Amino acid sequence: MQIRWYQKILEKDIDAVNGAGGKRESKTRLLNIVMQLRKCCNHPYLFEGAEPGPPYTTDEHIIDNSGKMVMLDKLLKRMRAQNSRVLIFSQMSRQLDILEDYCVFRDYQYCRIDGSTAHEDRITAIDEYNKPGSEKFIFLLTTRAGGLGINLTTADIVVLYDSDWNPQADLQAMDRAHRIGQTKQVMVFRFVTENAIEEKVLERAAQKLRLDQLVIQQGRSQQQAKAAANKDELLSMIQHGADLVFKGGKEKEANISQNMTEDDIDAILKRGEERTAELNARYAKLGLDDLQKFTSDSAYEWNGENFAAIKKPSIGANWINPAKRERKEQSYGIDNYYRTVLTSGNKAADTKPKAPRAPKQVNVLEHQFYPPRLVELQDRETAYFRASNIRLGTYSIS
User: Fold this and answer.
1) Does one domain contain both 157 and 229?
2) CA 72 to CA 66: how far, in whole Å?
3) pLDDT band for position 231 (cuts 50, 70, 90)
4) 295 near 200, Cβ under 8 Å?
5) 330-339: per-residue pLDDT in tens?
6) Long-range CB contacts (< 8 A, 24+ apart) of 308-315?
7) Residue ranges making up the domain that contains 386
8) Tens digit of pLDDT for each residue in 299-325?
9) What is the mean pLDDT of residues 353-380?
10) Is residue 200 located within the same domain as residue 88?
11) What is the mean pLDDT of residues 13-36?
């Protein structure tokens, strides 16, 4: 379902995805596409009409239709067996609604805080989660809700369901378990959809962290760093992995299966650690000039200069062809066509007699001074028509 919805979002604005608009393309339109793709990476039920129903039921389909939910379900079962306690962060409050339904379905005790939670309810939820012997297993939070006043040191597992554009928001989310009074080792799991836009969001967050280390922490904050993504960068994020979505095949088979085993989880976690170490090592070597250019994905760029052969990009170079349209199977046999035409054109073939047409009724008004004889003839004609149709059996009087 996720692949199908991801493909639908790209096909809806395929001209913008392929960059056919050029400089005339609106940045707002690209940002909207980015947001819809990120929603699809989280859970397809965030879109109206994706969830099967009515009636809407909470069943295994809420887990099977999202790769992240499959991974989260297996991970929480392992953490529950280890007597760990979990914090789950997401940027979208509607995603927390889906996670609430999941917690009720799996019979997990939970608390929740988002931007609409009142101050008294927030304090009550934190105290109930932190009290000794608490049965609350999961704490659901939005990434930017609460701020520095949340102390959840009783939890030792942090799950970042999706990544924020600003890496400082994710670091602050992790810090809610890294407080004074923490006695256990805290582990952080970040969910990233492979070959999708979330990989580019994570790369951009890593670049910002490295830039923060070079500029702010070394006292060079007077140099302005570019923060907002331009249209070209947004377009490259949208196009990342789009060709694999349309091709299908092995890429679809590589997705997380609902029949995942414990060995599969260990392999995914180990691969995630390797990818994280690779990402950190990649940006740890870059200098300030490179980091100020957020598009430095090429190995030919160094110190702000591109040593690759300069070629004018053409529209057809990275053109993404949409998937083949699914058409309903229809019979266009030539024999059937001529049989229908000949039958409809032959009057002798129409054996069913047509019903006689009713006589035309003239609306007689007093100010028009029609002769009374006309009204009498019209009534007689109508009565004769009704009597004839009653004898033929084609007219019924209610």
Assistant:
1) yes
2) 10
3) confident
4) no
5) 555 666 666 6
6) 315/18, 315/19, 315/20
7) 334-392
8) 455 545 555 554 444 444 456 666 666
9) 81
10) yes
11) 77
What is the value of pTM for the model shown?
0.67
Given this model, what pLDDT does residue 159 score?
92
pLDDT of residue 17: 74
Given a cut of 50, whether residue 385 has pLDDT beyond it is yes
User: What's the pLDDT at 336?
Assistant: 65
User: Would 78 be classed as within a structural domain?
Assistant: yes
Question: Which one is predicted more confidently, 246 or 76?
Answer: 76
Residue in 271, 220, 196, 282 with CA at minimum distance from that of residue 3: 196
Structure-block tokens of residue 316? 């057809």
Residues 277 and 358 placed together within one structural domain of the fold: no
The answer to whether residues 245 and 386 belong to one domain is no
Question: Does residue 313 lie within any of the structural domains?
Answer: no
Q: How many residues in the chain?
A: 398
Tell me, yes or no, whether 319 lies in a domain: no
Residue 324 forms part of a structural domain = no
